[in-house]
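Consider the following input, taken from an annotated entry for GNAT family N-acetyltransferase (Mesorhizobium temperatum).
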Amino acid sequence: MAVEHDRDIVSAPSELMKFETRHVPGALKLSQEMGWPYRQEDWEFALTVGNGLVLERAGQVIGTAMSWNYGQAYAMAGMIIVTGSAQGGGNGSRLFDGLLQATDGRNVLLNSTEEGLALYKRRGFTAWGRVLQLQGPLTVAVTQSARNDVRQATVSDLAAIQAFDERAMGMPRPSMVAALADAGKVVVIERAGRVAGYAIARKFGRGYVVGPCAAESVEDARLLILAQLSRLHDQFVRIDVYAEDGLGDWLESLGLERAGGATAMVKGQRPVSDGSAHMYALANQSFF
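Applying the prediction step yields:
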């Protein structure tokens, strides 16, 4: 009887609909099928700050796709999954096309796995960079720099952190930054009374993620990352960084291991950072 029931599910028509809270358990099951480390809390956070679509068949979630709008010009796409039994039948294209339509003509950015590259290229996306994923138990004792310009952020720093993030990203995302800051611990670099960089560490996946981290130089980015890592000894830590910035080898020297990565892609125009501000580590590969 179980076999007949499974056949009924596979043959039933699928329905594209808005991603709602009730779909989270089904989405979690999909990410577990893919071997992704998301917890239910990670899905709930993503849905709180973004929008999404699901494909549902016979009451079961068989696909997800999410987006996060940053101002009127940009959107980020991610958490795009189709269950194995529903792949190859146009479901991925149906989901992604619906997601693109929902971004209302914005320039769309995403980080693609190898499996997704062909679909995204067919939709007009081009590659512009490479994201490295480094992770593992932090067994190396990491000491924070003795410099006094790195400090714990306070509530009164939020507006300055949001403004610095916009400079580094080249697009506004104040709600996302506020949500990330609320979910984690924030450190900043203060120079001449102004915020000149920040980094957030929060619970995610198998342990903690350090990111986003934005700064005015790679040296400052290292200081901010060290300040966060100094409090995470023996914890499982993940950091996603851009290959072009050269932080990968340094993070490996601290005991983290490379665990794959992603291709950074854009459909339309990439945002341009303002001045020396630069984003060095991502909050995660789905919503930057």
